[in-house]
Amino acid sequence: MEIQWVALDWGTTNLSAYAVGADGMIVDQVHNDMGMSQLTSNEFESTLVDVIGHWLHADRVAPVLACGMVGAHEGWRDAGYSDAPCLPVDRNTTVCVPTSDPRLSVRIVPGVCQRQPEDVMRGEETQIAGYLAKNPNFDGVFCLPGTHSKWARVANGEIRNFTTFMTGELFSLLTKHSVLRLSTASSGWDDDAFLAGIKAAMSNPDRLTAQLFTSRPRTLLNGTPNEVLKAHLSGLLIGTEIAALREMWRADDVVIIGDQENARLYKTALGAFDIRSTVYNGAQAIIDGLRPLAKNFVQEPEPV
Amino acid sequence: MEIQWVALDWGTTNLSAYAVGADGMIVDQVHNDMGMSQLTSNEFESTLVDVIGHWLHADRVAPVLACGMVGAHEGWRDAGYSDAPCLPVDRNTTVCVPTSDPRLSVRIVPGVCQRQPEDVMRGEETQIAGYLAKNPNFDGVFCLPGTHSKWARVANGEIRNFTTFMTGELFSLLTKHSVLRLSTASSGWDDDAFLAGIKAAMSNPDRLTAQLFTSRPRTLLNGTPNEVLKAHLSGLLIGTEIAALREMWRADDVVIIGDQENARLYKTALGAFDIRSTVYNGAQAIIDGLRPLAKNFVQEPEPV
């Protein structure tokens, strides 16, 4: 297996590693839950070697490019932030991480911050860079759904401003730890209920904390099934997020970068607001965003 | 100690018991965490005897009047709901609970439900009844802050409609279980930050899920102290709740029924919206709401 470089998406809870071959294609990948929150600062290198050691050769140095919470203050090494407006990824600001294993040469991409209103991202900037690497003239709006959904406006290759919503984390907290867990525990799903939740949020985006509660009386009074209430709750949260951003996406198409399930939900939700969107795979976006940096290390042929 | 009857506020997480004397005054009280969620249906009686046994006499039957989640389907006995519009408490609908201990005669007050939009309360109806017992001609709006804050419109002695907000539970989830716990863990408080949170919510009540997140970047970028961010978070949640109810409290004074700390916060928040409010103690409201029912059992003199 001929590996040119390694891409790492190293977040709070998960680690994804991709081995990129001489032709620029992914030849192997590993996904596990060895996220930043599991590790102390001196455990990152050994964890990385455990995960990608079988890709390494004794007589060669493998370029490893990383983004995400691995570059946070509590991560492997604090890679700081670039201040928006800025390039999402700038090869001059990546931070080198010294390693004791001579087969590794590790660099981490800084996050992006916004001073007013205060906001931060780590990892999403690389995904945006990935889309821009393929679509260098794109001006418009990115939606990056997840635990903390990000919406970013990009113009002239720069992130101009962005906003984070706690949508994914709220869904998780409410369905796992709140009284609503009794009304939403389900492996099922109901697309109509999801759309109804979006529309309820669209009509009353300022009543979220009241609308969330309705799941409970709907169980108690009507016996509404849990899969309906779970999908409705998701629709309420995603719909509130989109409603709050009317100004941002007006007159623009939206590029959604995320995993398949999140992308499907957000595309549906945006459609309910009559907003067109295109989807770009989140893992691919990471690799495409890191690829130009790898060229500092290796002469990698363009993918065919 | 001469006890005429016992008032129980038996909720999901806590039990409060009050011994009411011959003069109508509270002669003793017990508070513990033996809430409904800790107990199976056959443990309620023994728990009650453990808690109030020292108030009971072998040769007398003590009337015990209870409200709260003790009357839920998962409680001691399902006391059902009265359908709003309705009297908050109706002596004809209380539910008798059979006991094996001959010293007890237990009745539970039903909750109140609303069919459209679906909503439920258990315990707050008794507090509203308590205020109305003292102010029988009151028409207006009640605010009952807590884990699930309730706002109720009352006219002609009846609850007309009401709305529940998850404010208290969201504050607890976010400060204990979310990424924001890292930015809000503090025993301190900052009144100015609380007011700033209220005003931020007032300006953008539809952006709550984005505004909540700002605590995290304010820590990371500015080193804002945790007590500031905790109070700001509380202001955001309470401010969003009040902003959503503009229609409800327009032209009305508000009666806040709650504990001292919640009442102080909500009175401050309502003041920021230029809404006048009066405060009525939550525990006193329970006792005043149950007192008329006790008269079915005992000839209790009016308190002086």
Mean pLDDT of chain A: 94
Largest interface: A-B, 43 and 43 residues
| Termini Cα gap of chain A | 19 Å
Regarding quaternary structure, how should these chains be classified?
A: homodimer
Tell me the CATH superfamily of the largest domain in chain A: 2-keto-3-deoxy-galactonokinase, substrate binding domain
Which second-level CATH architecture of the largest domain in chain A applies?
2-Layer Sandwich
Number of strands of chain A: 14
Q: How many helix segments of chain A?
A: 11
Descriptive overview:
2 copies of one chain form a homodimer. By secondary structure, chain A is an alpha/beta fold. The first copy, chain A, has 2 domains: 3-136 and 283-294, 2-keto-3-deoxy-galactonokinase, substrate binding domain (Nucleotidyltransferase, domain 5); 165-281, 2-Layer Sandwich (Nucleotidyltransferase, domain 5). Helix content of chain A is 37%, strand content 26%. Chain A is built from 11 helices and 14 strands. In chain A, the strands form 3 sheets. Chain A has a 6-stranded mixed β-sheet, covered by helices on one side. The longest helix of chain A has 19 residues, at 226-244. The first copy, chain A, is globular. Chain A binds chain B through residues 73, 81, 113-115, 117-120, 148, 163-167, 169-170, 173-174, 177-179, 204-210, 212-214, 216-218, 220-222, 237, 240-241, 243-244, and chain B through 73, 81, 113-115, 117-120, 148, 163-167, 169-170, 173-174, 177-179, 204-210, 212-214, 216-218, 220-222, 237, 240-241, 243-244.
